[in-house]
Predict the 3D structure of the following.
Amino acid sequence: MKKWIPWLLVAVVAAWVLSTLHHPPETGFHTRDFGRLPVLLGGRVQPLDSVARNTLLQIRERQSVGGMSATAWLMETMMNPEGADQLDVFRIDNLELLNLLQLPERQKYYSFSQIQPHLDDISRQAQRINNVDDVSRTAFERQLLKLDNALEIYQRLKLSLCPPGTKDFAGQLAAYEQAIPAGVVAAQAREAGKSYDQAALNRLVDFLSSYSDLSKFAYPLVVPPAPDAKSRADWQNMGQSLMNVVHGGEFVPAVKAYAAMATAYDQNQPAAFNQALDDYRQWLGEWFVPESRQGVQEFFFNEFQPFYQAIFIYVAAFLLAIFALLTFALAPNLSETLRRSAFWLVVLGGVIHTFGLVFRMWLEGRPPVTNLYSSAIFIGWGCVILGIVLERVFAVGLGSAVASFAGFITLVIAHNLSMDGDTMEMLRAVLDTNFWLATHVVVVTLGYASTFMAGLLGVTYVLLGLFTPLLRYKSGNLELGKVLTKMAYGIVCFAALFSFTGTVLGGIWADQSWGRFWGWDPKENGALLIVLWNAAILHARWGGLVRDRGLMNMVIFGNIVTSWSWFGVNMLGIGLHSYGFMDAAFWWLLAFVLSQVGLILLGLLPPGLGKSFQNPPQPAGS
Amino acid sequence: MLLERVIRFFTSLRLTVVLLVLSLVLVFAGTLGEVHLGLFKAQTEFFRSFFVYWQPAGARWKIPVFPGGYFLGMALLLNLISAHASRFKFSRAKIGLWIIHAGLILLILGQLATDMFAVESQMHLRQGQMKNYSESDRMDELAVTDLTDKKLETVVAIPERLLAGQGDIRNAQLPFVVRVREFYANSLLTTNAATGFVPANADTGVGPGLWWRQVPRETAMDRRDLPSALVEIVAPQGSLGTWLVSDWLEQPQTFTADGRTYSLQLRLERFYLPFSLRLLQFHHDVYEGTDIPKNFSSQLLLNRPDTGEHREVLIYMNNPLRYDGRTFYQASFDPDNLGTVLQVVKNPGWLTPYLACVLIATGMVVQFLSHLIPFLRKRRTS
């Protein structure tokens, strides 16, 4: 087979990835520029595009609405709410809930106008459910709470820019500006008990009451602080900023800019919209350089979606690696080409994965793991790196297969964990320390990654041993079965090193922060379990208590131990480390544990039943 | 022969593996236990014990069903030490393992020492308040305070476990006997008759007119027992009366004996410090536009009369005050943000994990390199 085939393949895939970065200039409304505008939400500056995507993930479990980009949807929601109410953005699966809301089944996504008649009902139910213990909530109750939350965010989003029912926001602002002097004079006169202009006062009060709603419910804070303000974190929402004007303040450029955009959007005048947007961006570029940059960079990251791209590359690499293994004995040349293709694809996937990881760290100014979502990304990354190393050492395709599989699975898990909203959320007080996040958390997470990697090698061993004769085949002077055992053993050594070091570092963090090295916190116990299990595997191996097959069964059990520590502990809902109860995840965890038990049982079958362990048929003629 | 077999048993890797697996099961079961029993009780039953017992509800007997933390820790220690003692042979290939295991021994011993000698307590300060003591978070004491000298109060504190034993308690500093007539480890009080309550048979102080009842011990982590006791003070000339003392009663009750004035109070056990802390200000910072906590901090005034030390200190998340062999860290705060709760830890063995870590890390690196280098060399030559 030709040597250049793998290179060609990788070049084509890389070109495809790069091509997704190219966007033709936008005609009509400059949606992407609008998506880059910085706002403050959840305590951090982020582009409107992130607000849009994270909101959609929470209410629709997708980052777009049909063919409409997240930002385009956000523009519609903030500047033409009546239109947005018709869009199908609320995902509802629960049949009981659909029946309660009298909605047609199997539509999957529903619009606000469909749900609107039942808003009171929903909030009444939600109030009751909020008093029910998390653990004893039914699927219906959980879905209803989720919908209630989604509706709240959606309605707040609608009140983030324009007062309700506004058509020409810019025109309204001008009227407000004119109404202020007379209104203030009237108010002061009334205060002093003199005669006053009732009509002027009423005009002003009408404006203020509508802006007061805006100030109470707005979701992102869109108005940056004055350039000379003391704190750069002092952002305001539209309503607050508008109400301040009465107290002798002035209209800040952001307010006027957004108002002009809203009017132009509502009147469908792209040129005017783009002009107002460009003016505002220029003003931001003058006074808010880091904030603007943050917006642009995070927008790029959102649009590039490196982890999403990596998922596809890993799948392709996994399939190639499997074909390489299947053709190992039948067509060695083809197999080698496939193997090399798989390997270089894994490397490409790893490069994109790494790029995403590093870019995220840079955006956040944090070490790689700050929450459950990023731990999944990082565990996947660790597995891929280990797999690449294994493939370099034992060039038989097994390393690539395991690496791509682990990369794929962990990124899918990460994707599902991202549904909770902003994955770059601010860290709670205890966790706000880059030093320990960079040491303890990273090392412990690498311990998880390597224990999973060993487990995956064990699974490969059991499956290949049972269903294929591959483990008997030789690569060089080593049988593949032996190669797998050596890999697993090596990785277990790594896992023991990382999990032990990480756990001890955690103890030192605890001692530094709370004056005690060990507190038997569930998460600490979880980490200890991994250490104990890896130590047990190593000692069993050294003592000759287990051979190849026993070792492989033990490393598969390591998957159970690690998944317990990673997810199971969080479901207990106690201790310092528990970051959120995850009900749906519980069933996944249970399914995973059962699958691993099943694999161990398969591994315990008498060796004679496995295709790799039967006596090889004598080749004809020998 | 027998000795040889015993030695072989204690030094075997098989025993190591069995002990490690048992530890795994224990830690897992203990973690689940923490959900039902609370962190503290589960730790006592699973980890700070030689055996884990099974006790049917309401039964007076219990049977050991599983080795506890102390048992497994010591067995592992024995296994480790005996294996190394019997097989010690100096070789380059093994040196890493030796260092690792020496570190492990130190770690286990250090944790055992921590377990035995470390004392944890809490200090709750309202804004402007000053204290020269911390308090236990769950154990009570009966404080008998001599108030006669206006400048210097002398306290005789009787710990809860002595009260629980009931009977007479004598102390050389007290001219009377404290007779514990009844003690409820967790109790409720009321001012009028209610179901389950009986009149407390006190004849002096606030006790007459109060009703009390015993209630089961608390298992929830965020609540604690509130004990009460019926205490008689018996002077050489006869009984001075019977008092109801309770953690529910905030004010001490006073009486005179032998011409001196004493007060009587059942309160959280106190640990006095040679210095005082005053809370100047508590801060609870949140991220802009959210209620996500960004930082908790307590600004305190430290005052130490015997050295004349007088300075401000700031305690915040991940930054405790280490002073006088104790660590004060930010543990909690009052809902109105006007009070702080500091956890106070005194742990003489705090240094051992650090030393152990250095040893183990060194050992691991040595061991890793001593395998990796020959492996790479072999691959290069092959």
In short: Chain A has 24 helices and eight strands. Strands of chain A lie at 38-41, 44-47, 64-65, 68-69, 88-91, 109-111, 474-475, 478-479. The radius of gyration of chain A is 29 Å. Confidence is low (pLDDT under 50) at residues 574-581, 618-622 of chain A.
